[in-house]
Amino acid sequence: MSAPTDSHSSTHWNDSADRRRPVPEGDVTLRTAELRYGPFRCATVKPYSRTQRAADGGSLLKVYVGMDPEGRRRREADTVRRAAHWGLSVPEVLATGRCDAESWSVFRVLPGVPCSVRTGQAVEEYIGHVLGLTERLHRSSPGLTPGSGWTDEGGLSALQHHLLLNQLSPRCQLRPWWAALVEALQPLQSHPAVYLHGDLKPEHLLVDSHQLSVVDWEASARGPAIVDYADVVFHLVRDLLYAGVKLRRVPIDLMTRLPFCGPVLAWRLLLWLDRRRPQDIDLIAARDVHRLAAEDQAAAAYASLARAVSALRAAGVPR
After folding, report:
1. Which pTM does this prediction carry?
2. pLDDT tens digits for 162-180?
3. I need a surface site. Which of 224, 231, 256, 261 has the fewest CB within 10 A?
4. What is the DSSP secondary-structure string of the chain?
């Protein structure tokens, strides 16, 4: 079958109106979305998604791959709508759906550029943006229970530490550090559940002269606020080291402005390894996991994390 042309009324879109108007979920196929909001350029491929920006720069097609693509699609679409209602600057969902075994969404592109962390001043500004965002984001409400996404769909309520442990693959339960990690995370049960972004890092915060925008909400969740802060620290340390920054130049002093929890930081390191190559999870020694989880001082814990990530990078673990 030949591709439709603009002479067909069902696939001709008015640039001044139709291309800007969101389409209700279920009312459009991926092919129709490509005709309406595309054409889309070459794909950027990541482990769990494939994204393509429209030729006119106004929209972005995201195809979810790997782990639970349909769950991640629904979670992100629901969360950005709720975040927009709160007044956060987030990408509007123009179209979303599932067809041909692919889960996908088209988002409106927001102005701004990703936060930079190339200098100490840039890192300080980035952490300031994070603290400003989380002050608005980390809301709690009566009866809010831990779980994936911002909407409780009536599933079984998870304990705070189970929310984290369940993200690790079953093979982790056979590792010598597992029992100690479970015990170390149990005090999280006393923390209130709040709304989480779930993957805070510089590339997900866009800044321009007027506002801060936040993108990539597929890992959104309800849980202890410290999870978002552990994400910030982990990504900052890992990405600086993998960019070639010397271990001694990692700005640990600036990161101490963020709330801290050693066990959650250890969990975040293990989550990264668990999602790399199958053999990478065995490159971390149980004593290093125990040491990081037991740290009660932020600076010492961040230094320990940086040493571990540096050693893992030297051992060949991919970013």
Report:
1. 0.90
2. 999 999 999 999 999 999 9
3. 256
4. -PPP-TTSGGG---TTTGGGS---TTS--HHHHHHHH--B-SPEEETTEEEEEBTTSSEEEEEE-SS-HHHHHHHHHHHHHHHHHTT-B---EEEEEEETTEEEEEEEPPSSEEPP-SSHHHHHHHHHHHHHHHHHH----TT---EESSS--S-PPPPHHHHHHTTS-GGGGGSTTHHHHHHHHGGGGGSPPEEE-S---GGGEEE-SS-EEE---TT-EEE-THHHHHHHHHHHHHHHHHTT--GGGS-HHHHTTS---HHHHHHHHHHHHHTS-TTGGGGS-HHHHHHHHH--SHHHHHHHHHHHHHHHHHTT---
